[in-house]
Amino acid sequence: MRTIDLSPLYRSFIGFDHLASMIDAASQNEKQASYPPYNIELLAEDKYRITMAVAGFAQNDISIEVQENTLTVTGKKEGKENTSEKRFLHKGISERNFERKFQLGDHVKVLTADMEHGLLHIDLERVIPEAKKPRKIEIGSNLLESK
């Protein structure tokens, strides 16, 4: 697997160190196992849905946290049943704990989370504040007088 040296970015881009950190974090996430499988869906222009296959997990086994621009979904089975007594002919449903992280863009907020039929749905929306939206400036207008 290729590794990327980001030290030139840290040296020459002042104030953009968070961008290099995001690239570094994304490359670390690529090394992460592909469990549990997930989809990222675009529902509308600024609405998204993450759907994760979490078969075997109950609602109280899963925690969802947002800190800064990172969404972390963690699944932990508290009391594992005695699986040594079970005899499987085929075991395809994984019951291992997981932690999956997603980097969120600026102004992306988590709206809801719901579980149905072994699928965890997390709805997100990008809400751009009015101050950040583009605005048209009329030629000949004095912006200082309007305040």
Automatic annotation (TrEMBL):
Alphabetically ordered keywords of this record: Stress response
Keyword Glycosyltransferase among UniProt keywords: no
Domain SHSP: 29-142
Superkingdom to which the source organism belongs: Bacteria
Gene3D superfamilies in the cross-refs: 2.60.40.790
InterPro entries, alphabetized: A-crystallin/Hsp20_dom, ACD_IbpA/B, HSP20-like_chaperone
Family recorded in the similarity comment: Belongs to the small heat shock protein (HSP20) family.
Alphabetized PANTHER family for the sequence: PTHR47062, SMALL HEAT SHOCK PROTEIN IBPA (PTHR47062:SF1)
Annotated protein name in UniProt: Heat-shock protein IbpA
Origin species: Planctobacterium marinum
